Amino acid sequence: MRDRGVCAVVPAAGRGTRLGAGVPKIMIEVADGVTLWHLLHRRLREAARHVHVVLSPDGEGPFRTLAAADLDGGGVSVSVQERPTGMGDAIFGPAARHWAAYGTILVVWGDQANLSPATVRAVLAAHPGKGMTLPLVPMPDPYVEYELAGGELVRVRQSREGEECRPGGLSDVGVFCLATDGLAAAWARYAAGAGRGAATGEVNFLPFLAHLSAAERWPVTVVPVRDPAEARGVNTAEDLEFARRAYLRCPD
């Protein structure tokens, strides 16, 4: 029987090479002894019945050491993405058996240090139990842009794939809430015919959301986010310094 609760899935198989940290980004310290994992777990553990983390082969052992107490408690699990083939493969690969038993999956990127607990609560409160719920925020210069029309998500533009995002467009905050009924089958249909990204060569997860809306007719619920800082992941040294200052101001 399917558990109608929430499973949070955190794709974190990146190696943090751009930051020169020598560890997966999710293990980078924001303050003494406080890592990105600790921040995300604090924001997710009250909202999700289970938290599943997807890691690289090199990252699995160090993460298991870092999160030993959380793993022993039974509310956190780990799987490994053997090759860095994109977020879609991370979510729908070995991780799928962990979230498939739940009614809702909350996908959260592993570097979202500035995500607020209030946003997580608002998303889950707004989610109607079907379709997808997306927290979106207008950005002066979005890295990713969501184009909506008549309640439908018609397109997701991605700068990293060479697509032009429009100033003032809506961007995500690294959080995506989806019903699990029919989700894996919808991904299989999408992946079978989807083109690969022009720059990454990946079958990207974000355009799949537009496919769910337009082709699979999934309803879309949008949760407005006011603070554009929530969209800022940790990709550069400047991003990390921003996250550290934000944590010192509000270490919740």
Structural account:
This protein is of the alpha/beta class and 252 residues long. It has a single domain (3-249), classed as Spore Coat Polysaccharide Biosynthesis Protein SpsA, Chain A (Alpha-Beta Complex), CATH 3.90.550. 31% of the residues lie in helices and 26% in strands. It is built from nine helices and twelve strands. The strands form three sheets. Strands 1, 4, 5, 6, 7, 10, 11 and 12 form an eight-stranded mixed β-sheet that branches. The longest helix has 13 residues, at 237-249. It is globular, with a radius of gyration of 17 Å. The N and C termini lie far apart (36 Å). The model has no long low-confidence stretch (mean pLDDT 92).
List keywords for this structure.
252 residues, alpha/beta, Spore Coat Polysaccharide Biosynthesis Protein SpsA, Chain A, eight-stranded mixed sheet, two-stranded antiparallel ribbon, 31% helix, globular, transferase
SSE order and pairing:
Layout: E1 3-11, E2 29-31, E3 34-35, H1 36-44, E4 50-55, H2 57-66, H3 68-72, E5 76-80, H4 87-92, H5 96-99, E6 102-108, H6 117-126, E7 132-138, E8 144-149, E9 152-158, E10 170-172, E11 175-179, H7 183-193, H8 206-214, E12 220-224, H9 237-249
Parallel strand pairs: 1-4, 1-6, 4-5, 7-12
Antiparallel strand pairs: 2-3, 6-11, 7-10, 7-11, 8-9
